[in-house]
Amino acid sequence: MKHPDWKTCTEGELWRYVAWHLAKNDIETILVGGAVVAIYSDGAYRSGDLDFVLKGFFVKNLPEVMGKIGFSVSKSRHYSHPECSHLIIDFASPPAAIGEDFKIVPESELVEGKQIFLYSPTDCVRDRLASYIHFQARECLDQAVLVAERFPVDLKKIKTWCKGEGSEEAFLKFSEKLTKHQS
User: Fold this and answer.
1) Are 89 and 129 part of one and the same domain?
2) Distance CA 125, CA 37 (A)
3) Three-state SS for 15?
4) CA–CA distance, 136 with 183 (Å, rounded to integer)
5) Shared-domain flag, residues 98 and 134
6) In sequence order, what E strands does the chain have?
7) What is the CATH number of the domain that holds 16?
8) pLDDT-based confidence at 180, cuts 50/70/90?
9) Distance from first CA to last CA of the chain, Å, rounded?
10) Statement to judge: residues 154 and 105 lie in one domain
11) Residue 2: inside a domain, yes or no?
């Protein structure tokens, strides 16, 4: 796979490149967090980093594989590329979870014969609302709306999840903002 233009690549371009190389080396990951918003919003939002959750607990060759594609460890879980100063890569331990929900079924994309994974639009919205609920990150509420404006999402699942997280208010604010943006 041809590398992206390091100086201008988007989160989506970098995700496909890195996830493909990882998959080629039997390392499965799920893209989570703000980079998923950047992909689903076609760049209307830019995150600055890509958060990958490893699908397996025992990944021995991650530094080696990342090194082969030009990335080096800048902190314990963070990888940077010398020519890609606007985006960093972060790896989190499994499992992928959104609040108390660990039963995540990611979307997949086939890239040059390899399956790569990211949160579905519904899970992306729930992930952003989790940051809004638990960290009072108001910008994440706007990011959730940005995704829901562009993709069909399961509003019932989101509402039930918000209630389970103890914040029906978050769903009300989300649906209120979504309705305003759609009118």
Assistant:
1) no
2) 8
3) helix
4) 26
5) no
6) 29-32, 49-54, 72-73, 78-81, 84-92, 107-111, 114-118
7) 3.10.450
8) confident
9) 42
10) no
11) no
Query: 131-156 pLDDT, tens per residue?
Result: 999 999 999 999 999 999 999 999 99
- Contact predicate 122/157, CB 8 Å: yes
Is the same domain home to 165 and 96?
A: no
Report the residue count for the chain: 183
Rounded CA separation 167/45 (Å): 25
In whole numbers, what is the pLDDT of the chain averaged over residues?
Answer: 95
Answer with the one of 90, 119, 148 that is the final residue of a domain: 119
Q: Which two tokens stand for residue 53?
A: 């959750």
Q: Considering only residues 93 and 81, tell me which one the structure prediction assigns the higher pLDDT.
A: 81
Residue 18, both tokens: 């890195």
Report how far residue 165's alpha carbon sits from residue 174's, in angstroms, rounded to the nearest whole number: 14
Give the Cβ contact number of residue 160 at 10 Å. 13
Count of structural domains within the chain: 2
Q: Is residue 58 part of a domain?
A: yes
Rounded-to-integer distance, Cα 141 and Cα 130, Å: 9
Residue 57 pLDDT level (bands cut at 50, 70, 90): confident
Task: Render pLDDT for 86-107 as a digit per residue (tens, 0 to 9).
Answer: 999 999 989 999 998 999 999 9
Cα–Cα dist 131/6, whole Å: 29
